[in-house]
Structures are given as C-alpha cells and as structure tokens.
Amino acid sequence: MSLRRVLVLTLATTLTASLAGPALVAGGPGTPVVRRGSTLAEGGTRALEGLPWSPDVIVASLGRTGPVALTQIYVQSQDVLAVDNRGKVFCLSRRDLQPRWITSLKAPLAAPPAESPSWYVFLLRDASGAAWLQWVSRRSGADADHSPVRLDFAPSSGVSATDGLAFVGSLGSARGNKTLESINLADGSPGWGYRTAGRIVGTPIVDPAGDMVLVAVEDRGLMSFPASQSPLSASIMNWRTETLAANKLPPAVTKDWGFLASDDNLVRGFDIHSGTVMWLQGIDAPAHKAPWLLGGLVTRDIAAGGEGGTAARVQRFEGYVFVRNQLGLHAFDAASGEPVFKDPNGDRPLAMVGDWVVTLDAAKTAQLRRGKGLPVEKVASLNMFDFLPTNTRDGTIIAGQSDGTIFLAVPK
C-alpha cells in the first residue's frame, strides 16, 4: 500500500471519529470527509505527486451529504480556512487537513481574514453596504462574547489584529475623522486611532511580535505606531519614512525587516524598528500587489568585537521578496536587495520547498526554479485547481477545487 493511500485512509478514520464528537460546530452538509472517487481529485493528486520532490498528498472533501461551492481558501499559521458561498468557514489543520471546526459569517467577506494568537478576525460587508467585524476563537470557531459588531465607519482597507485590537483603515464616520481605527476585541468598543493626511488603502500590518502597527499612506508616508495605546490620550507614532509617491499597498514584514512597493516604482527593504531604509530597487512601474516573502528565520554566528572576538548568535530572515507589476514578476534577495530574476510572464510565488522555489503564471503553470538566479528547471501544469493560495510559511503546497476538495502536498 502506498504512503499516500496510508495517509488518506488514516485521515478518513480520524475524520469519521471527529464527526461524532463536539469538535465540529456543524454535523450536516459541509462537514469534511475524505473522498477518493472524483476524477478531478485524482487528477489533482497525480499532478502534485508528480512534482520533483515527490510529496505525500492528502486529500479531503468538504461535501459529505450535499454540494459545497468554495469561494476562497486562506493559509494561516496552523490552519487552512475555506470559505463557501453560503458564508460558512471550514477550518482544517494545515498539518494534515484534519477538521477542527465550522462557523458561519454574518455577511460576505470584504477582505482576507486576520489572525491573532487567539482570534480569527473577519471584516464583512452586508447587502445594505454596512461593515461588520466578526471574530471567532482559533481553537473552537466560537464567536467572541461581543462578536459581531457593526462598524460606524466605512473601511478603506483590510483588517489586521493583535490579541486585543483589530486595525482597519477608515474613510471617516459621524463620531470622528480618523483614518486609522482600532476595535477592542474584548468588548467591541472603539480603541485608539490616528488621522493621517492621506487615505489608508493598504491593510495596516501588525508585526510578528504584535508590538507595532505599520501603515502605508497615500500621502507618501510609511508609519509605525505602538499597537497598544490608550484611546483617551493622543496617539503616539514610533517613526515615519517618506516615499516619493503614494503608497496603496501594505508592506510585508518579518520580525525585523519590512518590504514596501510604492507608486514611485521602487521596492524598499527597511528596518521595522526604526524605519531606516536598507536597500532600494527600481521596478519601472507601480506594483499591482503587496510584496510576497518566501524564506525563513536563520540563526547564524557572527564575529563580535573584531578578529578573535567572541561570536554573537543572531537570527535573521533569509529568502526572497517578490513583487509583480505590468512588466512581470520581480524577485530580490531579501537581505541585500540584489535582483534575482524578472519573469515577464510571472504572476506570483506559490511556495518554497527545500531548495526549490515555485512560481505561477496567469494560466496556473508552475515554474520550478532552483539554483543561483532561480532559473526554471521544470514546469508543471496546476490549472486543474481553482485555488492555489501562496504559502509563505513552509514547504507545503495547498490547493483546492470549488467543489470543496482540498489538497495538501507535504514534502517528504
């Protein structure tokens, strides 16, 4: 019996046991089960198994007793969130696709979900145009005590969150004219805010430590604020860095570094603690999407105090920054900013698997890259999948089909 079949059969047994217990919020249509009979599912499995590193593939289906129509799949730190056209959110373990819970959203999603240590936070917009914030437990999917709340302002961006606050760009409201708003996740009340001179269109970004909020603004500014502030006093800014044109996209951040693609046709690597720009690279046209990062934190020993001195152990991000504009997909070394490649047909990165980097074009053809300059060694068609979310966190590839079939390709 193949390892893939063992994995699938083991998962099926686990899923069957899970359905009988209270871990899943819903036990009717839409409860996850493993399915092997679909031709599309088999084709997707073969495509993933045929990748050069021969991953183990786990397949699960969200349609046990009725049809499911997925609209999006999101990769989180520990989970895969799949959203269907009825507003149901299915939470599966990112490690092995085991089902964790199902919950329902009050209204359609207006932006990708935010993740904090305890909550998944959803920005919603109902049929009348009203905006809502709904936050649920990452562990159980249960709504928080005061969730959902209707927002009394019109959001101008997506949402991000710490464990205590959610952050959203605002077009203003009857009670104030702040352009950065926060919502207290303990009781749904307004938190602190700040009025910027320009609109906040890119989602405010919380750093991995949850200590600061980074905000890119259309008035040519990139700003940092302490995440936790009192709503009763004037808001504090950590620093502000100027750009040469408007900023409509959020930065991508690691624990120490950030990367911003501005309308000034430049990509910047900067220190998130000070705002100091480390490197600049031109891409000759504004970016279409926020930067993506592939790589991870690496610990290295660096000599301290000159020759013969003791070694200091430091941890830093090593990998690649990707930016797409009308000229193609650009890749840079994250530490130095040195260009790695420019692909006129590239659309976005998919994942980094060992020494392989996988990118996609608009037709969902995967370019399998390896070596200095990341030349394309092989290509693979992945166009049988409706969803191929970029996984910036590890080497697994997650894919899905709109009928509720989810795939997880795990490197051996």
Fold and architecture overview:
With 412 residues, the chain is mostly beta strands. Helices cover 7% and strands 44% of the residues. The chain is built from two helices and 30 strands. It has helices spanning 3-20, 39-49; strands at 56-61, 70-75, 79-84, 88-93, 99-104, 114-115, 119-125, 131-137, 149-150, 153-161, 165-173, 180-184, 205-206, 212-217, 221-226, 239-242, 252-253, 257-261, 266-271, 277-282, 292-303, 311-325, 328-333, 339-343, 346-353, 356-361, 365-369, 376-381, 397-400, 405-410. It has a four-stranded antiparallel beta sheet, with no helix packed on it. Strands 6-7-8-9 form a four-stranded antiparallel beta sheet, with no helix packed on it. Strand 21 (292-303) and strand 22 (311-325) form a beta hairpin. The two termini are 17 Å apart.
Count of individual helical segments: 2
Structural class from helices and strands? mainly beta
What distance separates the N and C termini? 17 Å
Strand order of the largest sheet: 2-3-4-5
* Helical fraction: under 10%
Task: Evaluate the radius of gyration.
Answer: 22 Å
What kind of sheet is the major sheet? 4 strands, antiparallel
